[in-house]
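Q: What would this complex look like in 3D?
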Amino acid sequence: MPIPRAPRRATAFILTAALVLLAACSGEHGSPRYAAEKKLFKARKMRDDLITGGMKTEFVGRTSDAYRGIVNEYGGAARTVPELEDIVISAQMELGELEYRGGLLREARGDFERALALAPNVPAARANALYSAGVISEELEEPDSASAYFTRFFDGFLGVDSIASTVRMNPRYLVTPLKLAGLSVGLGDQGKADRWLMEAERIYLQVIAREKDPGLVRETRYNLLSTYLQQKRWSTALAFAKEIEALYRNPQDLSSILYIEARIYQDGFGDPARALALYLSVAGSYPKEREAPDALLAAAKIHEKALRLDQAASLYGTVIDSFKSRASEVVEAQWQLAHIDELKGDFESASLRYHSIYTDYPETVQGFEAPLRIASNYREHGSADAARSACNRALEHYDGLASGDHPMATKIMAEEYSVRALVEDKRWDEAAQRLIALPDRYPDHPPFRENYLRAASIYEKNLGDRERAIATLETCSAKFPGTSLARAADQELARLKR
Amino acid sequence: MNRITRVFKTFGTAISYLRSGRPAVPLLMYFALKLCIIFWYVLAGMNPPGSLWRLLMRGIDVRAAEHYPEHLILLPAVIGRIDLPLETLVLVAAQGATVLLVAAALRRERSGLGESLAGTGRRYIHLIIAAAAVSAALFVWFRLSAALLARFTAFPYGLGKGVSTLGGLVLETFFLYAIPVILIEKRAAPAAILRSFTFAGRHFFESFLLVLAPFLLTVPTLLLSLNPRTIALQISPEFLVQTQIAGEVMQFIATYLLMGGLTIYFAETRVKEGER
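A: Here is my prediction, written as structure tokens for the whole assembly.
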């Protein structure tokens, strides 16, 4: 039956209109602010997917570009439109955080610096950017730079007038003077460290006296206790710990404070017996608290130091059996048990334990150390062939970690340990070649660029090959012109050519 | 004939009438209106001239709705608020016109769109009263069942929602024939509702099936619209717009099947039972 013309036209019109509307619904919303929000949302989604997917390096760049695109597109207009300013600063900060997560520490620090420039009037963003740059500098093992960032933070945000608002932004900011003290100690300036600790004490006492927020006051009390510990004012620290113990009677606080008291007796008063009793009481009274396995480990180490090896082994065994979910404590207990086996002269058992450590916990420090420990045990006991094959197994293990589907930090550690394995086995040529290959294999990890200097040193000192040392340094100088690394290479070249 | 087969045969007959195009036009017009509203919301947002939306946003954070993706996450909630007045005032007219067009097709008569709309217009007040009565009854039922479920916390949440929905469908079944009674038998709204209750009570199984089958078609999109925030965060906020449109398409199909099916079933049963 033919469809009459009029309804057919009406139906066709309505369907066409519906299709046009459908297509139009995918279009952009009018305002630039809305468009910027949309782009920020997409960048955040990419970031979340990236984190869920294990931070695969190849996708970090794409997500970074999405954030960078927002900053470039709206950065200019942000100066005049307040709503855009927030979006641009958020994008810049999140870019820094993303790079930090991806192990691109220098890039992250650079992006936090740019966030500082973008946010002259946004204190929360400035504080976060400065603090983050300081933390990254610490991780890059650049104490001067870290100290400079934290000092800027301290001057800008921990003054008498600003401290109250700063602690509300993030209570973690309160540890800045403690960090500065630690950095000063690292730089060999004890006087400066003492001055920072005095600043810390002054600030914490001020916060405790004026703040009303009980959570914040509690955290500040712990920071003040840390200050007394760093100042090695043991009696003051113990008295203050008792004061905290009387104030906070819940298991979480009591276990923490008793653990700290035990440390004071052990490290401050040199009283291991009293410390041992306190550690055991923490583990016995609060077995479900965070400190319980740490307390058992500390107690076991006191026994081990006193050569009460069976008692120590028993406590390590308890950690392994009772705290299976606490991987770092379990692996430490296994490591110490292997060490006890070594002390007893049972190298086979020790090797078996080391093997299970690197098989079960390959990405821990102990997991990286264990294969080398097996090789060195054989070496120390004159089994050269066994040591060589243990070294080869270690290399295979590290290569597996470097080539597998692991986080970038694990791959970098594995590469460093594989070089160490070759050096300990005195396979100098292989070690140097491996060192030189790494900067190209990991272009996003600048510390590997210094491998050229290490390789040149191996060629010169261990292999007596000045020509290859010179060639290596020349390559380094040509590859990174104008950098401090190139200058160091040029200095070495001048020395070698003299 | 098997009772289930009979109900599905009425759906088949309703679909066969689509060859002439006419019976679907009123509901298509309503569907186009809904698309325009969605389109307006998505593109105009909360800014002028879209500030009209603010009237519908009581209890919703309007400032949040000015931002992406909250603007799209709120789409199902805002459209849901429009649905109540729109269904009572506009959809009921489209449903009435559909009933008249299907009834004419069943009698093998030619009826124009204008004619059916005019016929609906003449009974419009009664239709609105009937639609308002259904909405009020459903509102009371869902409020009541929610309050009961809140009291019996041991009752599993999903099962509770299922029972509540099933109860809503049963309630709707009793109001099912109010529109055809108002338009075909020319009764006033209260009498039409009473007649609908009696008729649905006599033919409950078939009537319930007439309501249930089209409802099942809308369940997938209905479930998708229940958690817009998760969809926005896990898939994409734009997917909510597509889900909303897909929901409207399914609603259009379901409403046509319901109105067509119930008109045919009601008319045939009257003839069969010798009713006037």
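A: To summarize the key features: DSSP finds 13 helices and no strands in chain B. The two ends of chain B are 23 Å apart (CA to CA).
Q: Very helpful, thank you.
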